[in-house]
Amino acid sequence: MTDASSSSALKSCDAPASTEEVLPLSVNQRHSAPIPLRNFGATCYLNSIVQCLLCTPGLLRALISDRERIVHEWEVERLSTTKRASSEAHRRSCAERNVPATSSLVDLYTAHPAPPIPVSQLLLNLKEACASSNDEFSSNGQKDAHEFLLTLLGVIHKEVCHSKPDVCEVFREVEDETKWEAYARLVRRLQQENNSTIYRFFGGITGCTIQCAKCHLVSYRFEAQLVISLPMTYRLPTLGSKIVMKCTSGKRDGKTQAEGSIAVDEMLREMFFSERGELLNGSMQVTCDRCKKLRDKTIWYSIEQWPPILVLHLKRFNNAGVKNESAVVFPYTFCSIENLEYQLYSVCCHRGSASFGHYTSYAYVQGEDEAAETDNNTATAATVVSDLFQSPLASMNSERLFSPRERQPTGCVGGFFTSDSISKENGSDSKGASETHNRNGNRKVNGKDEPLPEETESKTGKWYLCNDKHITEVTAPDVLSMTKEAYILFYRRVDGRHATVS
C-alpha cells in the first residue's frame, strides 16, 4: 500500500490485545540458537519452513522495520482523529491485526528469552494467516512445505507491500519486440506490484525465449520468482558432464527407487543454461501469434536477475504424489554466471513418502559480529534488486540481457564459472587452478585437499538440526550428507568472500 492510502486502509485497533504487561514492539533481541517449536500434529512442514526463514540473514530486521512503519502510519492517523497517544498495548494490537503473519514471524525471531505471546500461539497465528490465503492450510494433516513457503511469503508480501494491488500494468506479448524492450516493460510492472521486503530479498527474474519452428518468430517472457523449482529429470550424460542421471522403474511404498545421483549445478544447467532448449511438439504444440496455427516451438529458459536470497526447490514429488528419492548433491558455495557467490545457510529436508513423512530443517545461526557483517551484505544485495525495480530503466545495462544460446562469457561452463565453483565431487567438470570447498571442510586447489586458513574459519556461527522441539548442534558435513532428504535449499549472497565449512 502507498504511504498516502495505507493509514486509511488499516483496520481499527483501538482495543488493546491484553491487560498484562506488553513488551515494546521495538524489542528485537536476536536469539542465539533456534527455538523449539511444537508440532500440533503433522505441522512439521510449518516448523521446518519457519526455522529456515528465521535464520535468513537480514530478513527479520527488515520485517521489524516494516512492522514499525505500518504501526506508525496507524498512530499518525489515530492521533489526528482522537488526539490521543497510543499505548504499547494498542500498538501491538494494531500490528497483530494488520500484519498478523509478519508480526508473528518477528515475535518468533525475538522469542528469546521471553516472547510477548506464547510460541505455540505464534505458530497457530502463522497457520491461520496462511489458511486465509490458501484453503490447503485450513485443515489439519500433512502438507507440502514448498507450498507453505510460497503461501507464507505471499501473505507477508501483501501485508508489507508499498504498492496498490489495482494499478498494475497488464503484461502482454508484443510482436517484433526486442528482449530488452520486453524486459523493460516487466521491470515497470515490478516497480508497481513487487515493492516489498519479500521481493527485495527473495525476488529474482527468470526469462524464456520462444521461437516458432515454421516462421521463426521469437518472443520473450519474464517472470519474478521467489523460489526456483528444479525438475528431477533424468538424462544420459551430456558433453562435459560426469553425472549420470537415471532412474529405475521400480516402486516401493509410493517412492521411486533411484540409482546414481544428481547435482544441483547440473539441474540448474539443464533448466536454465541448455543451448539445445526444450522442444514443444505433438500435444505440446503452441499457437504461433504470426502463423495463427499450432506450431512446434523451441523454448530456452534463463535466469536474468539473481536474488540476494536464492531458494531452490527440488521437485521430488510428481503429480501423483510419488516421491523421487534420488540423491541430490548440493554445494556449500557456488558462483553464478554473473560471478555472484552464494553460500548455503539452511536446508528443509523431507523423509518418507507423500502420505506418511516428516519434515526437518538445518539452520545456520550466526554470532553477533558475523551476523552484523552478513546483514549488511545481504541488505546491500537486496538494495541492488530494489534499485533494479525502482531506478530509471535507462541506467540498466542491456548488455546483461541475453539468452543462453546468444552468448556465453569466457571461462563459463554451462552457466557457472569454473573458478571458485562447485567441486568435482558435487558434479562440475572444472579443470585447472580452481578452488572449491569439499565436505570435509578443506579447500581443493588443483585437485588436492588443503586445510582452510585459520583466519577464515567460522568461530561463532553454528549449524543446528531443527526437529520440532528437538534442537541439536551439527556440523556442515552433516548437512551436506542429506542428499536423499534435501527438499528446499536456501543460499545467501556472499559476494567477494569465501565461505567456510565448519
Automatic annotation (TrEMBL):
Gene3D superfamilies the UniProt entry points to: Cysteine proteinases
Pfam families: UCH
Record-level GO BP terms: protein deubiquitination
Region (Disordered): 418-458
Domain USP: 35-494
Entry keyword set: Hydrolase
Basic and acidic residues composition-biased segments: 422-438, 446-458
InterPro entries: Papain-like_cys_pep_sf, Peptidase_C19_UCH, Ub_carboxyl-term_hydrolase, USP, USP_CS
Gene Ontology MF terms: cysteine-type deubiquitinase activity
Xref: PANTHER family: UBIQUITIN CARBOXYL-TERMINAL HYDROLASE (PTHR21646), UBIQUITIN CARBOXYL-TERMINAL HYDROLASE USP2 (PTHR21646:SF23)
Protein name: Ubiquitin hydrolase, putative,cysteine peptidase,Clan CA, family C19, putative
Organism, as annotated: Leishmania guyanensis
